[in-house]
Each structure stands twice: as C-alpha cells, then as structure tokens.
C-alpha cells in the first residue's frame, strides 16, 4: 500500500467483501472478517469496501453475465458514494479469495477492473499470498490475467514462495517501485539470505517437477470426484475454484442456500478422527477448502478422498 500511495499520491483504497489481506493494523482493516478486528482499533482511514463477485450468491434471478455487470457497477458507484476515483490509489483483490471461501474472480470482472483502473489512474493490485507459486495451475494466478490483457500493476506474494521459510515480496514495474523513497519499505530482516536461497530452490523444484501442471491435475481429479458427490448429497451447494485451489460450499437447502457451518465442523471432526486434516473457510464458515501439497501422489489423494467421502456419506443427506 505504501508503494501504491507513493506512486499515485492518493490516500484511498478499494477492497472487497470476503477479503483477507493480513494481520497488521492496515491489512486487518482491509480484511472483511470482523472477528479479526475486535478490540484493535482505531484503524487507518481511507479503506472502502464493495461487493466481491461471488457468482454462487449473486442477486436473485441474475444470470452470471448480469451479476458480473452488477458487481462492476458496485465499484463505479463507490466512486460516487464512498470516495472519488481521483482519490483512489489502488483496487486490491485476491484472484481466488482464500479465507473468503475459495471464490475465483470472474475474468470478465477482472477485465472491467483493469479498465476502470486505466481510466482513472488507479493501481490494480492482486494479493497472491495464497494463490501464488503454482496453486492455481500457473506460477501466479495473475498470469491468467496477463494472457487476457489485464495484468495487475502490483502483485503481492508470500507463503509458498520459500517452501516454509519466512519471506514475502511485492512485484511491480520499475517506475512504480521507484515512486517511493529509499528506506521507506522493508526492514532489518528483509531480504534474509537463507529465505531468499530457499525461494530460489523452491522455484527450481516447481519448474523441474512441473508442479504447476500437477496442480491442474490434482484440481481436476478432486473436482471430478466432488461433482459426483454433488449429484448425490443435497448439502453440497457449490464446487468452484481455479487449478488446485478448490472450495466446496455446504448448505442446508439448495433453494435458500442457507449456510451449514455446523455440518462443516462435524465433517472436519469426522475426518480428523480418521486421519485426514481438512479446513473450513468462507464468511459463514461453511466451505471446505482443497489446497493440497503439489507433491501429493495419486495414492495419497485417493486415500484422502476416501476418508472425506466416508465423512460426507455419514453426515450428509442423499438425494432421492
């Protein structure tokens, strides 16, 4: 955010519902989950939130195309109701929302965000802390955007970058990064040589072992199995994702789409008791996320799916 604000000379930022961006005071405020911010205020000014394009929970009776247009309009309306576009430094989003429920941003929406940014001198920033380094089938999810002519101006990444060592990075064009003075970003432990070496080794392994392609294989195999379950069990409402990042949204009723967090908690416990660790996600805690190690074997995947399927069979209702 320092880079975007310094380059544009503007104070404000547009973020989205369902977002998770971190745990510093600023990024906690950029994050949508209220539980993360209780007792931590006051927070920095200049953060404005609009609706993220969740096509499963789009307005009633909208087609996907109409819903994308609706979510684009919400951004434009923010310029009238929340902050003028001339005061916005960046529009920040996750290509696939992580904590928000593994919700991928529709490419047509991303193209429109790119156009809005270009027309108004705003930085388009992607948070690839979860999606980076092969998780979506490409080294970065933003590579899909680059192919579609809507690459971001600034990309943020961490987590998988160094195979478990602490490291994060921002990627931007030279003139953007040079917009901020020396010594205003980074710190004492920035650029740690061991972490940087680990990152280089991690990237080499990703390339040598074709782990981006493996991510696509794992995601396709997992999705195919879950979509079979979706035809059998009424509580599986939505299956979505990108590459190897897949979310399953569990609901109580397919018509009302009422979230089923209690069921997800029970599924987690059933799986843990049988040797499989799974995690929930989503605003309502009703999504099970698939974010498996890219080095997982077919046998390990099958073993995990069998445990998960047994849990679903024990706790969910079969369709007539």
TrEMBL record:
Encoding gene per record: davT_3
Residue ranges the record marks as coiled coil: none
Keyword flag Transferase: yes
Protein EC: 2.6.1.48
Name of this chain's protein: 5-aminovalerate aminotransferase DavT
PROSITE patterns from the UniProt entry: AA_TRANSFER_CLASS_3
Keywords: Aminotransferase, Pyridoxal phosphate, Transferase
UniProt cofactor(s): pyridoxal 5'-phosphate
Similarity remark: Belongs to the class-III pyridoxal-phosphate-dependent aminotransferase family.
Organism: bioreactor metagenome
Keyword Transit peptide: no
Organism ancestry: unclassified sequences, metagenomes, ecological metagenomes
EC class of the enzyme, as a word: transferase
MF-aspect GO terms: 5-aminovalerate transaminase activity; identical protein binding; pyridoxal phosphate binding
């Amino acid at each position: 955010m320092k880079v975007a604000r310094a380059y544009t000379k503007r104070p404000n930022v547009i973020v989205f519902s369902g977002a998770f961006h971190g745990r510093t005071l600023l990024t906690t405020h950029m994050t949508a989950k209220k539980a993360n911010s209780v007792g931590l205020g006051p927070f920095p000014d200049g953060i404005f939130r609009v609706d993220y394009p969740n096509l499963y929970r789009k307005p009633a009776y909208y087609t996907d195309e109409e819903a994308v247009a609706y979510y684009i309009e919400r951004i434009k309306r923010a310029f009238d109701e929340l902050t003028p576009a001339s005061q916005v430094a960046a529009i920040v989003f996750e290509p696939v929302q992580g904590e928000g429920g593994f919700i991928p941003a529709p490419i047509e929406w991303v193209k429109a965000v790119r156009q809005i940014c270009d027309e108004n001198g705003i930085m388009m920033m992607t948070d690839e802390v979860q999606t980076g380094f092969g998780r979506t089938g490409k080294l970065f999810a933003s590579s899909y955007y680059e192919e579609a002519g809507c690459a971001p101006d600034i990309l943020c990444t961490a987590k998988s970058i160094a195979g478990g060592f602490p490291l994060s990075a921002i990627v931007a064009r030279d003139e953007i990064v040079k917009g901020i003075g020396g010594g205003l970003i980074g710190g004492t432990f920035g650029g740690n040589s061991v972490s940087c070496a680990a990152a280089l080794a991690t990237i080499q392994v990703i390339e040598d072992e074709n782990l981006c392609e493996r991510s696509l294989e794992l995601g396709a195999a997992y999705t195919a199995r879950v979509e079979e379950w979706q035809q059998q069990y009424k509580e599986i409402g939505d299956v979505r994702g990108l590459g190897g990042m897949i979310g399953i949204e569990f609901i109580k009723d397919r018509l009302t789409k009422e979230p089923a967090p209690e069921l997800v908690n029970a599924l987690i416990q059933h799986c843990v008791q049988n040797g499989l660790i799974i995690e929930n996600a989503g605003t309502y805690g009703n999504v099970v996320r698939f974010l498996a190690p890219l080095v997982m074997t077919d046998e390990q995947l099958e073993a995990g799916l069998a445990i998960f399927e047994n849990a679903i069979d024990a706790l969910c209702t079969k369709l007539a």
